[in-house]
Amino acid sequence: MSDYPPIRREVLVDARPEAAFKIFTAGLGRWWPLAGGFGVYKDGAVAFAGGQIIERAADGREAVWGTVTRWEPPGAVAFTWHPGYEAERASRVEVTFTAAGPQTLVRLIHSGWEIFDDPAAARAEYEQGWPTVIGYYAGHAARPGEDDGALTWVALLHRPGPSAPREGSLFDDPRFAGHVAFLHRMREAGYLVAAGPLADEDGAGMTILRLHGAGQLGHAVLLATRDDAAVAGGLLSVTVRPWQVMMSSG
Known about the structure:
The chain is an alpha+beta fold and 250 residues long.
């Protein structure tokens, strides 16, 4: 018997099992708090892809976090877990989704601590981290309209910020990589529609986002101002405008 018992966490989410499973897996990049330090590179995107969980940094580097070992939608998903380590040093995570009236009881079990050099310290770190991560997931699942087909469209208008260089191009400033990383995260989350500079105004650009669910303007403002390091650092300023789509090709 192991001296280090599994971590067990559970949360009720305001979604049916099918939606809860989809949000946890296909929607991983939309809610996982990479910007909060829960990743290897922390400046890109993460997703289930090709039977693995893969984090991609803004500069193209990749880190495999784990490999799927059980895939039984909408009831369960399990995977090995080794962010920042080789696959041979993997612990194990299993997540189950059980109907509870109109909600879903989501249970996460993390085990296999013996693989770590200091099992007690690793377990203690994850015991502190998982509640934060699961909280992000539950908050994302609770957003109104997340899976009813409603959409919120916004235009982000970018211009040189208060600490932008007075000479030279914004694109040459090292901080601009933070804006590129933000666009990568928006693309991986399924939010990005288009982005690019304005041809008639130096240093200005526009990004169009399409967020899942109605009434997501506030969330878009948080993304644009806090998740974009170039904006948070003063290189760029941003104005978030609601965008009304009158016609779309699909």
